[in-house]
Write a structure and sequence with these properties.
CATH topology of the largest domain: Nucleoside Triphosphate Pyrophosphohydrolase
Oligomer: single chain
Helix content: 10-25%
Bound molecules: zinc ion
CATH architecture of the largest domain: Alpha-Beta Complex
Distance between the termini: 24 Å
Structural class: alpha+beta
Shape: globular
Largest sheet: 6 strands, mixed
Order of helices and strands: HEEEEEEHHEEEEEEHEEEHH
Number of helices: 6
Radius of gyration: 22 Å
Strand content: 25-35%
């Protein structure tokens, strides 16, 4: 599953400007550099032919502001991992190539640890970019705690990185059928689980029931937690659940979905194994939706 492979020791108790400076000065450090929302990759390849993204901070020091860098954590060998937004671009002759995280991750170009670290980095830098001003008094805010807080020097307000929870659910009828929908944004012929943002004041299970009722017109009883996936576009956590439907007639929300229907287990198995007679598919292993759908195929009701 994408973005779930980080093994960094985040050491959240020791995030200060001093530990950030120490990490930046560590000659084992690797720093990910974001430019215009994309990540700079180095032309050199690692032993497995993957692009390298972690720069020695000293090598790119002219291209970022050290006070705006974020400390992601330390790898198991103790080497720090950091991220920063480029304030100037390295010149083209250096051979750097900027690539979006979604494309990098989907193409399988990243090892799972790097992919998880970049997810954390992208989420954090997206939050910094949207939190430059104080929501209370409007003054410019400053990065603090090695990039895990923003502080307002005018009114003293402190902001922490936000994570927006999204519920994603495998709804089944306890009798070998599940509900899948098609958003107009999906690749052609791909079907997936229903999903939606959890609202303020709402429990996860209430969000699963509300979203299923709104999108498919189906009522849901029991809801069980399945697994979660960081989704840094721009800063979500997908929380996967399995819900048991208590009604069967689908009336889908045409504003959100172009289609929604019940699928039986054999049909879903054919979709994930890419042998459906009509070419219908389910999401790939990168997405939590794949793992929810696979769990349904393996379920014994
Ligand atoms: Zn303020």
């Amino acid at each position: 599953m994408g973005f779930a492979g980080s093994r960094l020791d985040r050491d959240g108790e020791n995030r200060t400007e001093a530990t950030l400076a120490e990490a930046l000065a560590d000659d084992r450090a690797g720093l990910y550099l974001m430019a215009d929302g994309r990540w700079l990759t180095q032309p050199s390849l690692d032993g497995e032919g993957r692009p390298s993204l972690a720069f020695g901070p000293a090598a790119v020091t002219a291209h970022f502001d050290t006070t705006q860098a974020v400390l992601l954590g330390r790898r198991t060998d103790g080497s720090p991992r950091l991220a920063a937004r480029a304030v100037t671009m390295p010149d083209e002759a250096s051979g750097f190539v900027a690539e979006g995280l979604r494309g990098l991750a989907m193409s399988g170009a990243l090892d799972t640890e790097t992919e998880g670290e970049l997810g954390q980095a992208e989420h954090l830098l997206n939050w910094h970019a949207r939190s430059a001003f104080c929501g209370r008094c409007g003054a410019a805010t400053l990065s603090d705690a090695a990039g895990y807080r923003r502080r307002c020097p005018s009114c003293g307000d402190v902001q922490f990185p936000r994570t927006d929870p999204v519920s994603i659910m495998l709804i089944h009828d306890g009798n070998g059928r599940t509900i899948l929908g098609r958003s107009p944004r999906f690749p052609e012929r791909m079907w997936s689980c229903l999903a939606g943002f959890i609202e303020p004041g709402e429990t996860l299970e209430a969000a699963v029931r509300r979203e299923t009722l709104e999108e498919a017109g189906v009522t849901v009883g029991r809801v069980d937690y399945f697994a979660s996936q960081p989704w840094p576009f721009p800063g979500s956590l997908m929380i996967g659940c399995v819900g048991l439907a208590t009604s069967t007639d689908i009336v889908f929300d045409a504003a959100e979905l172009e289609a929604c229907r019940w699928f039986d287990r054999d049909e879903v198995a054919a979709m994930i194994e890419e042998r459906h007679p009509d070419g219908l598919t389910a999401p790939k292993t990168f997405a939590i939706a794949h793992h929810l759908v696979r769990a349904f195929v393996e379920m014994t009701d």
